[in-house]
Amino acid sequence: MDRRSEVLLRVISIIVCGLGVVRCDSFYCDPELCRFWNGTDYNYEDHIACGNNGSLSEDCPEGATMVNMSQRRINLLLDLHNAARNRIALGKIEDYLPAESMPILKWDRELEYIASLNVKTCKFAHDGCRNTYKYPYSGQNIAISTQNPPFHSNSKRMKKAVARWFYEYVDANQTFIDEFSGHPEGKQIGHFAMMVADRAKRVGCAAIRYWLGEKGLAFLMTCNYDFTPIYTEPIYKTGEPASKCSKTSEKFTGLCEWDEDYDTSEESNEIFGNEIDSVPSLL
Fold first, then answer.
1. How far apart are CA 212 and CA 218, in angstroms?
2. What distances in angstroms separate CA 23 from CA 10, 13, 27, 167, 199, one per listed residue?
3. What stretches of the chain adopt beta strand conformation (E)?
4. Residues 21, 23, 26, CA angle at the centre, nearest 5°?
5. Which of 112, 150, 226, 271 has the greatest number of C-beta atoms within 10 Å?
């Protein structure tokens, strides 16, 4: 099957799935989607969407409620991500070099759907595999916060989560950007790396709220990305800000704008204070 036919098949499958004509949990059961090299051999992980009918897990407490991912919240999450990427791309963060070609992130419904399956487990944990035919190297950031009533708005929880991911930059440095690796002291830097990866162009997020007894109300959020940082490879290429962009974003001047039909395959080569700087007070 040629590439055009594969793309057409995926589009038809997604449309049919959305109409509820067939079950689509088997669409993600190809073991090749979840084959990972461990350095000596290949391991196979279970895909979060394989055999998953989209229901809440039995482990979820009674009353667990998915957060509606409205356009307003989508815009908020995109602005938070892109504001953070823009700061890095422009060289506004001390000790980090600017990026020559970092694209803006745009929303992806399939990534959102698969992220929703993660939060529907009501467990703060990465899933074993979330790859798709279109995104064979999909990345993931997860966050959880708890508090007793009164509960801050969902949007504030989202801002807090994204801010915490981004502020992992204090434990990283340009060395990790030039050649990604784990932190030698075990400090978390992967969420930050994911946020500023220049091969990531799409994101989709989901969130859920549920009670955790004396700990209060939990807010669990997962964001999936179309690409994940790869060990020993650069997180982003350094250079004059946006110097390799064919078109620069008007809103985020350090980021590259791109068309919606941009193909990531090798063959084709007023929302309340969305700026990342407004978030530290929430931490």
1. 6
2. 14, 10, 8, 40, 32
3. 35-37, 42-44, 65-66, 102-103, 106-107, 139-147, 202-211, 217-225, 255-256
4. 145
5. 226
CA distances (Å), origin 208, targets 26, 123, 214, 271: 24, 10, 18, 21
- Tokens 């395959």, residue? 265
**With the C-alpha atoms ordered 184, 200, 228, 130, is the resulting torsion angle positive or negative?**
positive
pLDDT-above-70 percentage for the chain: 82
How is residue 64 written in tokens? 């667990």
Report the SS3 class of residue 279. Answer: coil
Look at residue 249 in the predicted model and tell me its pLDDT.
98
Q: What pLDDT, on a 0 to 100 scale, did the predictor assign at position 269? A: 31
Task: Check residue 141 and give left, alpha or beta (phi > 0: left; psi -120 to 50: alpha).
Answer: beta
Second-level CATH architecture of 56-282: 3-Layer(aba) Sandwich (3.40)
Residue 18 has pLDDT above 70, yes or no: no
Query: Are the C-beta atoms of residues 103 and 196 closer than 8 Å to each other?
Result: no
Given a cut of 80, whether residue 24 has pLDDT beyond it is no
Please state the rounded mean pLDDT for residues 123-144: 97
Q: How confident is the model at residue 5 (pLDDT cuts 50, 70, 90)?
A: low
- The pLDDT value given to residue 268: 31
- Residue of 223, 206, 212 whose CA lies nearest to 151: 212
Q: How far is CA 87 from CA 67, 117, 207, in A?
A: 29, 31, 26
The DSSP code for 40 is S
Residue in the structure block whose two tokens are 């989709």: 204
Q: How far apart are CA 25 and CA 14, in angstroms?
A: 11
